[in-house]
Write a structure and sequence with these properties.
By secondary structure, the chain is of the alpha+beta class. It has two domains: 2-132, Jelly Rolls; 139-242, Orthogonal Bundle (Arc Repressor Mutant, subunit A), CATH 1.10.10. 46% of the residues lie in helices and 24% in strands. Strands 7-4-9-2-1-10 form a six-stranded mixed sheet. Strands 3-8-5-6 form a four-stranded antiparallel sheet. Strand 5 (42-46) and strand 6 (49-53) form a beta hairpin. Helix 4 (139-150) packs across helix 6 (169-180) and helix 4 (139-150) crosses helix 7 (184-201). It is globular, with a radius of gyration of 18 Å.
């Protein structure tokens, strides 16, 4: 697994080569993900609908959409482009396409052909169209998810969340999972790991990151990191590369 990050534009390419890892149900906060299958066969499940994908198939996942990805048989290779909503708000579509083309052409080993680079560029226009139509959540769900996103390192109980929005915790669990696709607890853990990735990328040690994200010990942190990211924190650090 390799991560190619471009901090100035908040863009990330992820390459999984000859992978067998299954990514269980998860979503991305304020991120549009464009995935391109390079080799092998996978099953992408979103909105409880499974779809078989193979080489050269491309898919788009909008923010908060719960999805999973699993090998259909044997190994698969995939490259994923993650684009923050801030990028879409900052750059007009033509400028965005130019930037993505430039970054994709910087990826080492030449694993993307010209046709595949252009597939990402074309998909970006669809992402801009999707972003213009993106529906927001109800006020209760928005307030709850924002509360969790703002403090991933804290211990947040259901009682705390329900008191925050003045509804019962049982109603909150049901409505949150209906809107976000994950329970508040699982969404919270996922956000802690996303923050951990950010801290590691910016020079924090594994021990410091575990403490800063609220894990009670390093082994507990490593276990959840690998479950969500697919590799250990040390492997993640080794996989990082930065684009201009």
């Amino acid at each position: 697994m390799k991560y190619y990050k471009c901090d100035p534009y908040k863009i990330e390419f992820t390459l999984l080569d000859n992978c067998t890892f299954t990514f269980e149900n998860h979503n991305h906060v304020s991120i549009y993900a464009i995935g391109l299958i390079l080799a092998g066969d996978v099953t992408l499940t979103k909105k409880n609908v499974a779809c078989k994908l193979s080489s050269d198939d491309l898919f788009i996942i909008p923010p908060y959409m719960v999805h999973s990805l699993a090998p259909s048989a044997g190994q698969y290779s995939i490259v994923t482009l993650c684009i923050g909503t801030e990028f879409l708000d900052t750059y007009a579509v033509n400028n965005g396409k130019r930037l993505i083309r430039n970054l994709a052409n910087q990826l080492d080993d030449g694993f993307l052909t010209h046709r595949q680079v252009e597939a990402f560029v074309d998909a970006l226009e669809l992402v801009y169209n999707m972003a213009a139509k993106f529906d927001d959540f109800t006020e209760i769900i928005t307030e709850t998810k924002d509360f969790i996103e703002a403090r991933p390192e804290k211990i947040i109980t259901l009682d705390t969340l329900s008191q925050q929005v003045f509804i019962s915790k049982y109603y909150l669990i049901r409505e949150f999972k209906k809107a976000i696709g994950l329970s508040p607890h699982r969404f919270h853990i996922q956000n802690r790991i996303r923050k951990a990735q950010h801290l590691l990328t910016n020079g924090s040690t594994i021990t410091e990151t575990a403490q800063s994200t609220g894990f009670y010990d390093q082994s507990h942190f490593i276990k959840y990191f690998k479950k969500i990211v697919g590799i250990t924190p040390s492997e993640y650090l080794e996989s990082l590369k930065f684009l201009d």
